[in-house]
Amino acid sequence: MTPFGAINDKDGRVTVVLDEALLENAVLNHHPLVNTKTTSIRREDLIAFLKATGHEPRILAVSLDTAASE
């Protein structure tokens, strides 16, 4: 799912979870609700967008640390 989909959750039924490792990047690339397009957004702007839609993102370490498993 694209985090931009949060704009369609008017009832606040969705909890947005962002991977901590993803947010290490200053610029993020996501589908803008169209799978044939990609848009870039600054990490801070994505968080501001989510908050503006009423979705305070939960930031959790959810990706596998491959370096630790080697």
Describe what you observe in this structure:
With 70 residues, this protein is α+β, with helices and mostly antiparallel strands. It has one domain. The chain is built from 1 helix and 4 strands.
Keywords:
4 strands, two-stranded parallel sheet, alpha+beta, 70 residues, 1 helix
Give a brief rundown of this model.
The protein is an alpha+beta fold and 70 residues long.
Mean pLDDT: 92
Range of helix content: 10-25%
Strand order of the largest sheet: 1-4
Overall shape: globular
CA-based gyration radius: 13 Å
Total E-strand runs: 4
Are there runs of 5+ residues with pLDDT below 50, and where? Answer: none
Major sheet details:
2 strands, parallel
Whole-number tally of structural domains: 1
Topology as H/E string? EEEHE
Secondary-structure content class: alpha+beta
How do the strands and helices of this protein lay out in sequence?
Layout: E1 17-19, E2 27-30, E3 39-42, H1 43-52, E4 58-60
Parallel strand pairs: 1-4
Antiparallel strand pairs: 2-3
